[in-house]
Write a structure and sequence with these properties.
The protein is an alpha+beta fold. It has one domain. It is built from 2 helices and 5 strands. It has a 5-stranded mixed β-sheet. The longest helix has 18 residues. The mean pLDDT is 94.
Length: 96
């Protein structure tokens, strides 16, 4: 297991804190490839209790996953990273 850095936005004013989410090595390696392309991981617990997980850069979000807060969050992290990695790192890997 390796840590993936996330910026978490806290209620009520969006204060930022750095958190890590430990995931299997192969997921963390995909996350590092995404970070190397200039993207970051963000998370926020929404008022109704779900969690928003995003991959973003300065132009906006490129991937988002919504999940009920609880035991499903780690699987949602994996799903988000796998999908975004495929879109950003595998689909265009031969383009220059």
């Amino acid at each position: 297991m390796k840590d993936i850095p996330f910026t978490q936005y806290l209620r009520p004013n969006g204060r930022k804190v750095q958190v890590n989410i430990a995931r299997p090595d192969y997921i963390a390696e995909r996350a590092q490839a995404i970070i190397a392309k200039g993207f970051r991981f963000e998370c926020e617990q929404l008022r109704e209790g779900s969690v928003s997980l995003t991959v973003a850069d300065d132009d906006g979000d490129v991937g988002i996953e919504l999940v009920k807060n609880g035991v499903g969050v780690p699987n949602a992290v994996d799903k988000l990273i796998t999908r975004v990695h495929k879109e950003l790192c595998e689909t265009h890997k031969d383009e220059k």
